[in-house]
Request: fold
Amino acid sequence: MKNSLSRRIDVLALSRSLSDGSPCRTIDARQVMRLADEAGVTGRVVEVAALRQHVLPDRYIRNLKTLSEADQIRLLESAVCIVGQGGLGGLVTETLARIGIGRFHLVDGDRFEAHNLNRQLFSSIDHIGMPKTEAAVMRLKTINPGLEVMATAAYLTPDNADALMGSCNLVVDCLDNIRSRFALEAAAKGAGIPMVSAAVAGISGHVTTIFPEDEGLETIYGPEDQLTIARGSETRLGCLAPGVNLIASLESAEVIKVLLERGDTLQNRLLIVDLADYTFETLRLSGTTAAKKASATPQATAKKQRHFS
Reply:
């Protein structure tokens, strides 16, 4: 099957010039799905096979100068669990699907309501009452039907968190409450995989990355058993689309950096963004002492105490 697929890719590949004039062999997205049907595999498998032959699926042409063929293969072979398919989760899911993550496990037990329409990408009038995971799967199949997508229409709990990790390489926290975030962190650490975490309220938010060996959320919220709030300041500030869009983009960028092991990530650091005054601050979270030093300034202390949800 591999030899046959390789031959078919070679026959269908087109020679073309990229916008900078450099030569490239590409294969059309529709031909990818045609080959997948013929071979009885997913389109993701065909895309990986094409890239190994230095044939670029045309949907990734604009990725090429920033991502190498090896990078694109690595993303297509990655499996990402995204917990939460609301404001952050919908945008992160779509962004990662478009850049080329190949396998997804989408988790959310919620259904769309009218108040989601101000910011949640997969919501629409027609989708009110629809499970968010159902809308997410439908959307991804319109972007790239060759992706491998599994959905779990259930809320994350300490009891099911471990099972949801599956064989994923990374988990993305797009939750809207702090206690569930701690449960997800524990499951990610148990599975030995990194967690990219973000929270947003109003037009501000934060992003961090937690590896299994890190202290993690405790350096932001304090010990879990001492939490005095279940939800963050979204309950007071609301949640506006510009803040959600920006934080989702930052969270998506961090996922790519972690998967590709490229550049400095936000491990043991907290990136705080506030669109009210266009400030971007990074606080070091490596240990209690460092966290105390980071929060020593009045401005940092005020921002940490917002407790984004």
Notes: The chain has two domains: 2-64, 78-304. Residues 78-304 form a domain with the Rossmann fold fold (CATH 3.40.50.720). The radius of gyration is 20 Å. The chain is about 40% helix and 20% strand.
